[in-house]
Design a protein that fits this description.
This protein is mainly α. The protein is built from 19 helices and two strands. The longest helix has 47 residues. The radius of gyration is 22 Å and the shape is globular.
Length: 440
């Protein structure tokens, strides 16, 4: 990418959004959020319910996708829903200081307000990529999106390095102050997108296709169906182990929260590397090839989490878990970027928001279900029989996650040809249309 392209208004505005909003996200998710919730008294069941709520965004957002056809409506949706979501997060931060709630009342208000924040912001976030793609265009998309993703994953590393010391020494009050600072950054991030330039063209116009027509087109698109089944299995598998990973390392393995924050730093740094690698692989071999390569290694993350306690035989649990979380960042950051790029290639231009929304819809259902199942399992004492072995609650969660990821790998292998054929078929008329516009 040339420096001149970096100074374009679209890149500057998008970069400002990625900088401030991801600083907000880094300080209010991951180890910061999990450590704060443990201090509030969250049980494993509470974690399962909360992550289930955080995962249903796509389910709620799907109906809104039919009203975001034009670029102006995409911009309106993004700004309105993100400002409303920040108000919900303010309620979450204030929950411990509201009189008369009691411990359980405060926990449930925290769960509901944080869930509403995730759902409402998710509705606005749903239109972000189609909005940016429509304005920037396919020719400049990889370079533009690479800049955005590098900022998005680099900022959390800096935030974690600056504030990780608060984890072992800061109480609820200190963490609440940190969340207020993050909230101000998030507001600046949304304001930055108010300056994003309009498009010189309207791609696809208003959404006029009826739901029945869209569904029939989707059902006839074998590449899209294969991507959907892959996403369902991946979502359930991720929903199982994501809520359990950090509590498991803190409570079961006995690693301090500030130490776990190092894992998140490495995981986020690996995500930056993943974006570069996936961009290179996608440009050279295609997004479908990138998806297949990632599918071959993603199952290793829950598999290795199963072995953290046994790792003392060879290396310390600290170093072993560090490697596992590094793989987590490397694989899953690239995985969801790759799936999104495949969907953008498979979807007709006028229906991109609806296609992405439908994927988010089914992904949300199964990720939410996985998170809820994870919470139920983790809250049960004792051992479980699985494949002839006696496993504890967390070990069973990781074993189930491993099984579903293996199934997703099988779908990626079997569906590769369909994804390639449908993506090429959709790209051909779009390219022809662009050539025709140029010749005129």
């Amino acid at each position: 990418m040339r420096w001149r392209e970096l100074l374009q208004p679209a890149t500057l505005s998008s970069g400002g959004n990625a900088l401030f909003y991801n600083a907000f996200a880094a300080l209010t998710t991951g180890i910061f959020l999990n450590d704060y919730l443990l201090r509030l008294g969250f049980t494993p069941f509470d974690f399962g319910v909360m992550y289930a709520l955080l995962s249903i965004t796509g389910f709620v957002a799907f109906p809104f996708s039919f009203y975001a056809g034009s670029i102006e409506w995409k911009k309106t949706f993004f700004l309105a829903f993100h400002f409303a979501a920040l108000g919900c997060f303010l309620l979450f931060v204030c929950a411990p200081y509201m009189p008369g709630l009691g411990t359980r009342g405060m926990i449930w208000l925290s769960i509901v307000s944080l869930g509403l924040f995730s759902i409402i912001s998710g509705i606005g976030r749903l239109v972000l990529v189609p909005w940016l793609f429509s304005v920037v265009g396919n020719a400049s998309w990889y370079s533009f999106y690479l800049v955005r993703m590098v900022i998005s994953y680099s900022v959390p590393v800096a935030a974690l390095l600056l504030f990780r010391g608060m984890l072992d020494h800061g109480g609820v009050g200190v963490m609440s102050t940190l969340f207020f600072i993050a909230l101000a950054m998030g507001t600046l991030g949304v304001v930055a997108m108010m300056l994003f330039p309009p498009s010189v063209r309207e791609e696809g116009g208003e959404q006029r296709d009826r739901l029945g027509d869209i569904v029939r087109t989707m059902l006839g698109n074998r590449g899209f169906l294969a991507t959907m089944v892959f996403g369902i299995l991946l979502a359930f598998a991720t929903g199982l182990f994501a809520p359990a990973a950090f509590p498991y390392l803190i409570k079961e393995v006995g690693i301090a929260s500030s130490t776990v924050s190092l894992y998140q730093i490495v995981m986020t740094a690996a995500s930056v590397l993943s974006v570069f690698l996936i961009t290179h692989i996608s440009r050279r071999y295609g997004s479908v090839s990138a998806l297949l390569r990632l599918s071959c290694v993603m199952w290793a993350v829950p598999a290795l989490l199963l072995a953290v306690k046994l790792s003392a035989i060879v290396v310390t649990p600290f170093l072993f878990a560090l490697g596992v979380m590094d793989g987590y960042g490397l694989v899953f950051a690239g995985m969801y970027v790759t799936v999104m790029n495949i969907l953008l290639q498979l979807a007709p231009p006028r229906n991109r928001v609806v296609y992405l929304a439908s994927f988010e819809f089914v992904k949300a259902i199964f990720m939410s279900l996985g998170s809820f199942v994870s919470g139920l399992i983790a809250d049960r004492p004792g051992t479980f029989a699985f494949g002839g072995a006696a496993l504890g609650p967390y070990e069973l969660i990781f074993a189930l996650s491993l099984a579903f990821m293996a199934a997703a790998l099988l779908v990626a292998v079997l569906g590769r040809k369909a994804m390639l054929c449908e993506a090429n078929a959709e790209a051909a008329p779009q390219a022809a249309g662009r050539r025709g516009a140029v010749s005129k």
